[in-house]
Every structure is written in structure tokens, then in C-alpha cells.
Amino acid sequence: MLVLRSGLTRALASRTLAPQVCSSFATGPRQYNGTFYEFRTYYLKPSKMNAFMENLKETIHLRTAHSELVGFWSVEFGGRMNKVFHIWKYDNFAHRAEVRKALANCKEWQEQSIIPNLAHIDKQETEITYLIPWSKLEKPPKEGVYELAVFQMKPGGPALWGDAFKRAINAHVNLGYTKVVGVFHTEYGELNRVHVLWWNESADSRAAGRHKSHEDPRVVAAVRESVNYLVSQQNMLLIPTSFSPLK
After folding, report:
1. pLDDT in tens, the chain (247 residues)
2. Could you say which of 44, 118, 197, 199 has the lowest number of CB atoms within 10 Å?
3. Where does the sequence pass through the membrane (predicted)?
């Protein structure tokens, strides 16, 4: 009986410990919500930037009839020039597949926008992202400029760097130095990458807030903790187009 009870005890103990061992490999809160955001970046030929924007201004309604456009911006600073960046929202991957099929069969969209604009585009990039579980998409109080900051993090996911990163973001926002629109984590594309979309009234107000935050010991402490998990970072200053929902 002692042997049986001892064996049973070990079996029960292994069952109890198994979930704990597995959980240590988790990269963060599970993504139960199917909603995702597609980030698209188009590199345009320098002489065709204006023609591309004018065409979309007239035809974007044909595209937004099929799925939600979150925002559309031209890149003012950061990296290559003559670049546009836009974000599209989808309920799930089946929804995106349906939209892409519908667009391929939309004669007006193909003839009035796709065909004429293909000659204007030099390169295209796309990433699929989710909002980080503690972030939600916020609408700025008025028109302004946007900054997309991209952080390449160490492998491990939000379980590794999530809390420290959240504290760094909240330190900037809660102390009034800037406003955050959304924090996104890449699902397809460059993995372990976090995108933070910031809003400011102007490029000058952004610069002033940034300089003040660098002198605030509360922000400095939070950022120093977060950079322990950082590999690299880059950013872009974005100007919303006339047809962008986010102004």
C-alpha cells in the first residue's frame, strides 16, 4: 500500500506541476480577440508622390467600402522619403480574405486606383499586428501629428518585457508629455517588434515634451528598466492625409 500510495503521490504531483512547467514558456497573455491591424508601407517614386495622393483622395471611398481604414499618413521624417503608411482593421483572417477577394473583383477600384497607381509605387511592405492586451485604440482630441516608434525587443514576448514596457509608456502618458493612440505587437513580419503610435499637437510640441521627459526622473527610471529588453529602435513622424480617419 505504501508503494502504491507513494506512486500515486508522485503521479498527482507530476500532474500538478505540468501546467506550471508549460506556463513558463508562454510569451504573454493569449490573443482571444481575432481583431488585428494590417500595417502597410508604400515607397513611392519621387516624381509620382503627388499623383498617387491625388488619386487616392478621389478613390479611397471605393476601398473603405470593404473594410475599415484606421489612418493614412505621409512620412515627414524618419528613413526613406516619399513614403506613405496606413493601417487597416480586420475582424479576423477570414474577414481579410473576403475583403481581398472583393477588391480583386471590384472593377471600379481596379480600374480607377490600382492600375494607375501601380506605376507610382516602387516598393510595398506589410505587417500583421495585434493590439497589446493592455492597450486599446484611442482617438486623439483634435488634429495633430503622429509618431510611429518601432521597438525591436529581445525574444520572449510580453511575458518577458511587457510590464517594464507598459511602465515606460505610462510614464510618458500619465505625466502629460504625449498621448498614445495604440501599442501593437507584430504577429507576421519582423517578430518581437512593438509599434507605438503617439499623437502630439505639432512637431514642436512633441520635441518640447520629449525634452522635458528626458529630465523627469520618473520617466528616466521607467525607460531605463525597459531598455534592458531593447535591441534597437527607430521612428517616423507622420502627417495625416485629408482622407485619414485619424487626423
Report:
1. 334 344 444 443 444 443 333 333 344 555 567 899 999 999 999 999 999 999 999 999 999 999 999 999 999 999 889 999 999 999 999 999 999 999 999 999 999 999 999 999 999 999 999 999 889 999 999 999 999 999 999 998 878 888 899 999 999 998 888 999 999 999 999 999 999 999 999 999 999 999 999 899 998 998 988 888 999 999 999 999 999 999 9
2. 118
3. none
3-class secondary-structure state, position 222: helix
What single letter denotes the amino acid at residue 77?
F
What is the pTM for the complete model shown? Answer: 0.84
Instruction: Give the containing element (helix H, strand E) for 109.
Output: helix 107-109
- Paired with 149 in beta bridges are 196, 235
3-state helix, strand, coil in the chain (%, to 5): 45, 30, 25
Residue 245 located in a structural domain: no
User: In this structure, what C-alpha cell is assigned to residue 110?
Assistant: 481596379
Contact of 28 with 157, CB cutoff 8 Å? yes
| Cβ-contact 231, 153 below 8 angstroms | yes
| Separation between Cα atoms, residue 33 and residue 245, nearest integer Å | 23
Give residue for cell 508629455: 177
Helix (H) or strand (E) holding 77: strand 68-77
- Residue 234, CA atoms < 13 Å, CB-side half-sphere: 7
Residue 161 CA to residue 229 CA, distance in Å, equals 6
Residue 49 lies in a domain: yes
